[in-house]
Amino acid sequence: MQVAPMALGSMLGIMASLFSSNLPAQEKTMVTHKVISPGEFAKATNPKPGERQRVEILQPGAEGTRHLAGIFAAIPPGKPGQKPQYHYHQNRESIIQILAGDATEMVDGKAVPLKVGDVIYIAPGTKHTLMNNSTTEEVKYMEFYSPVVPDVVQVKD
Predict the structure, then answer these.
(1) What contacts 40, CB < 8 A, 6 or more positions away?
(2) ∠85-3-153 over CA atoms, to 5°?
(3) Half-sphere exposure (Cβ direction) of 75: Cα atoms closer than 13 Å
(4) Is position 28 within any domain?
(5) Are 155 and 90 contacting, i.e. CB atoms less than 8 angstroms apart?
(6) Which listed residue, of 4, 106, 136, 141, carries a Cα 20 to 30 Å from 119's Cα?
(7) Which domain holds residue 69?
(8) Euclidean distance between CA atoms 132 and 115, whole angstroms
(9) Could you tell me the maximum CA-CA distance found in the chain, to the nearest angstrom?
């Protein structure tokens, strides 16, 4: 399986298809759109330096989405020699965009370097983890995923 960063235009096309719906009019929600400003989050200060942070920005029901969720997250500076903590999602597709920092997505044992602005797609069943390459700066990213049901399987060494 080949995994590579994709252009923002491709990510937006995928997101648009996830937002579209063939539901009957009576089943559609009142919310038709939501503007998300990643630049605001990229500049924000982590309230708990040294800890991973996660802020939900798109939640089913709360914002009216049915099949899509999204988060902003921060990964604290890495430690030299840290080991990847892999996980996978049995059914979930994810799109991740790097907003700040120097990251590597470890995908099935292969390192995929990511810089600010890069977008990566992760397919269901793919063992992966996002790592911070810096020992001094946080990595901040935005992730959108579907389906929204709990679907995280931790991989043991």
Answers:
(1) none
(2) 35
(3) 21
(4) no
(5) no
(6) 136
(7) 5-18+44-148
(8) 11
(9) 54
Confidence of residue 54 (pLDDT cuts 50, 70, 90): confident
| Residue 25 within a domain | no
Q: Which residue, chain included where needed, has tokens 């914002």?
A: 63
Q: Has residue 31 been placed in a domain?
A: no
Name 99's Cβ contacts closer than 8 Å, sequence gap at least 6: 38, 39, 41, 42, 72, 116, 140, 141, 142
Q: Which two tokens stand for residue 132?
A: 């911070």
Q: Are 70 and 36 in contact (CB under 8 A)?
A: yes
- Give the tens place of pLDDT for each residue, 63-101: 667 888 899 999 999 887 788 899 999 999 999 999 999
- Distance between CA atoms of residues 1 and 24, nearest Å: 37
pTM above threshold 0.85: no
Closest CA to 3 of 118, 156, 144, 143: 118
